[in-house]
Design a protein that fits this description.
Number of helices: 4
Distance between the termini: 120 Å
Strand content: 25-35%
Oligomer: single chain
Number of domains: 2
CATH architecture of the largest domain: 2-Layer Sandwich
Largest sheet: 5 strands, antiparallel
Order of helices and strands: HHHEEEHEE
Helix content: 40-55%
CATH topology of the largest domain: Alpha-Beta Plaits
Shape: elongated
CATH superfamily of the largest domain: Ribosomal protein S6/Translation elongation factor EF1B
């Protein structure tokens, strides 16, 4: 009977009401948190599925490009003196793109056995070289950009030297210079000279 009296006590009922209110608020907050968590996770899953479909489409497109590239005939690198003409054409294009002038391009019509700067003897008779002397004139930044852009060439080459000389006054674009390039254009002839 003392338990009934304790429950009927107004202070006890207020305490129980507060405890029940706190529990219901806690339950509502917990349910809200889990609902928000479920919503964000479902959004992430939806975004992941969308990205997966996009990546799958890109992979299929890349596979098609690879298949078409494998079927395409690859053009052979020019050999013999055609490699020198190709390198000259590439150098002319690069120099023009940089706003410079190709003053001279000299190359003998004779192929020599390839000899690297790092070796004294050669053991591969299929590789040949042609010594090339070229001069580029223009503002220093543009000339150096042109020399750097030579790396775009598909024709292999080795620089022997790069000589830089100032050619006049310094302008707003920088000093006018002339760069002398000495390099060797390399080509594989497969045993025959052109």
């Amino acid at each position: 009977m003392s338990f009934r009296l304790w429950l009927m006590n107004p202070a006890t009922s207020r305490l129980l009401a507060r405890v029940l209110l706190a529990l219901s608020v806690l339950l509502a907050l917990t349910g809200g948190w889990w609902g928000l968590r479920w919503y964000t996770l479902s959004e992430r899953v939806r975004e992941s599925n969308l990205l997966a479909r996009q990546y799958e489409a890109e992979i299929q497109e890349a596979k098609l490009q690879i298949a078409s590239a494998q079927g395409a005939r690859r053009l052979p690198r020019p050999g013999g003196l055609a490699a020198v003409r190709s390198f000259q054409s590439i150098l002319e294009t690069i120099v023009a793109e940089q706003g410079c002038e190709l003053v001279s391009f000299e190359a003998p019509a004779q192929l020599m056995p390839f000899l690297s700067r790092f070796q004294k003897i050669t053991d591969d008779s299929d590789w040949k070289q042609v010594s090339v002397h070229a001069k580029i004139r223009g503002p220093i930044r543009d000339v150096m950009a042109a020399v750097s852009a030579c790396s775009r060439s598909e024709v292999p080459y080795e620089f022997d030297s790069i000589e830089l000389q100032r050619q006049g006054e310094i302008t707003a674009k920088g000093a006018m210079v002339e760069v002398g390039l000495e390099l060797r254009v390399l080509m594989r002839t497969h045993g025959g000279d052109e």
